[in-house]
Write a structure and sequence with these properties.
The protein is of the alpha/beta class. Helices cover 38% and strands 19% of the residues. The protein has 17 helices and 20 strands. The structure holds ligand BES and zinc ion (2 copies). The site of one zinc ion has 5 residues, from loops.
């Protein structure tokens, strides 16, 4: 999709459709609406007067222009009440229109930003949100259907009269990069586990590195063995798919000692292992690499935007499968950190591979850590599908990640790290066990386990088990992988500059 900034008003664009914005309860008196309304003989005003168009948030009214202007159609997009309008709603709104346009097979679209709104907000933020909305809304996973057609939207004209030019350029660049990285992660999550194997995920990461000039190191099974990454080895030993430890590095601030370490859970399929999941809970477990997807896709965005910061991504990738070679409950393994772990549950596999990856990221020089993982069913119970769980061992680093998430338009909520719960992880035969064997505070238990492997390094854990996959098409989401975490991580790397 190509973006073109133009000074021309919407009424002069020769496109398949233009989008005008309308707030609830208002007249057709916003600058852009007014102009379009006038050339269309006040048809928009009539629709509003007759209650056909209300401006309710997410409402779309489609009008044909009957050659009164070069554009063929007008989408009147409802943005809800003016006082409730924010960049998140703008992003969602544009996503809804873009999807409609894509479904209709339109090629060229003209959009503008609400002038009233533009006055009070930063131009870059507004443009970024609009661009993200269009790119995220138009996204569709192509899959493997014989009759799957090409994407239709090819060019978007952004009609802007009085926004600051530099702000517009910055917002446009960020919007494109944030959204395309998100869509990349979505596609990986949507890929079935027979196609997106650990090795295939590593290939994707290598391509990201190549496209963006990042350093890449992919540890194969032999090197993982040599490095004694016992967690990754134990989980992968029951699968025909060999594991990978994927490392991407970007050094945009070579003079700085600070290194942001991003770690993502890359279980390409989670059967539960020998303590196998019930049939229904196993469906959808191809998404258990969504944390890995978020981290690798964020590196694509970081590599493109090139912030003044250092970032390394460490992604353990393997499959948790059932086999005569599978690891068992009661097994004792040794993680990369040297700590021994008693296996209490083979379905609590994510934390075992993350333990190796977190310790390895520290070894590689990470001074601050964020992990992203579809770690627990418990977080879905606690926070549902709209909010990611956040846990941390250092409050100020937690606040920094919350700020990045807020700026990125992703919702997170903190759960407390309760020291008492760490006692559940005591084992009589090893340094710790991977689960307390009780079902209380499951999400915090997961974090409590990971915490043992970050030592004193400031660390944030994002549990995206609820937010990685959306079952319906709505707003910026289309059914499937959401790409959650990508925009937060890119934003974090940008804010990390200058540390
Ligand atoms: N991959 C799952 C967590 C998950 C659940 C992701 C639902 C997405 C949707 C994780 O590996 C897992 O199986 N967790 C178990 C842990 C338990 C057995 C200790 C869980 O949450 O039930
Ligand atoms: Zn599991
Ligand atoms: Zn899992």
């Amino acid at each position: 999709m190509e973006w073109k900034v133009t000074q021309k008003p919407l009424t002069q664009l020769a496109v398949d459709g233009i989008v005008v914005l309308h707030t609830e309860g208002g007249e057709a008196d916003g600058e852009d609406v007014k102009e379009v309304d006038e050339v269309l003989d006040f048809r928009i005003s009539r629709l509003i007067a007759d209650g056909e168009t209300t401006g309710k948030y997410g409402e779309i009214t489609l009008l044909h222009t009957w050659d009164k202007i070069p554009a063929k159609r007008v989408f009147v997009l409802g943005l809800g009440k003016a006082e409730e309008l924010d960049v998140d709603r703008l992003r969602q709104g544009f996503a809804i229109v873009a999807r409609k346009a894509e479904e209709r097979g339109l090629k060229h679209l003209g959009i503008a930003l609400p002038a009233s709104f533009a006055a009070e907000k930063n131009a870059a933020d507004l443009v970024q949100a609009a661009v993200e909305g269009v790119e995220l809304g138009a996204y569709r996973y192509r899959g493997y259907k014989g009759d799957s057609r090409e994407a239709s939207l090819t060019s978007i004209f952004l009609s802007l009269s009085d926004l600051s030019r530099s702000g517009v350029e910055a917002g446009l660049e960020r919007g494109k990069v944030f959204a395309r990285a998100t869509n990349l992660a979505r596609t990986w999550v949507n890929e079935p586990a027979n196609r997106l194997t650990p090795a295939a995920l590593a290939d994707q990461a290598a391509e990201v590195a190549k496209r963006n000039g990042l350093k890449v190191d992919i540890l194969d099974e032999q090197r993982i063995e040599e490095m004694r990454m016992g967690g990754l080895l134990a989980v992968s030993q029951g699968s025909a798919q060999p594991p990978r430890m994927i490392v991407l590095s970007y050094f945009g601030a070579p003079e700085s000692q600070e290194v942001l370490g991003l770690v993502g859970k890359g279980i390409t399929f989670d059967s539960g292992g020998l303590q196998v999941k019930p049939a229904k809970s196993m469906n959808g477990m191809k998404d258990d690499m969504a944390g890995a997807a978020a981290v690798i896709a964020a590196m694509e965005g970081i590599g493109t935007l090139k912030p003044h910061s250092n970032v390394i991504a460490v992604v353990p990738a393997c499959e948790n499968s059932v086999d005569g070679k599978s690891y068992r409950p009661g097994d004792v393994i040794q993680s990369f950190s040297g700590k021994t772990i008693e296996i209490e549950h083979t379905d609590a596999e994510g934390r075992l591979i993350l333990a190796d990856a977190l310790a390895y990221a520290r070894r590689l020089g990470a001074t601050r850590l964020v992990d992203v993982a579809t770690l627990t069913g418990a977080i879905v119970v606690a926070l549902g599908r709209e909010v990611t769980g956040l846990m941390t061992n250092e409050a100020s680093w937690g606040e920094e990640v919350k700020t990045a998430a807020r700026l990125a338009g992703e919702r997170v909520w903190e759960l407390p790290m309760v020291p008492e719960y760490e006692e559940w992880l005591r084992s009589s035969v090893a340094d710790l066990k991977n689960h307390g064997g009780i079902s209380e505070a499951g999400a915090i238990q997961g974090a409590a386990f990971l915490k043992q492997f970050v030592e004193e390094t400031p660390w944030v854990h994002l549990d995206i088990a609820g937010t990685a996959y959306f079952n319906k098409t709505k707003g910026i989401h289309s059914e499937g992988g959401t790409g959650v975490g990508v925009r937060t991580l890119i934003q974090l790397a940008i804010r990390f500059a200058g540390r």
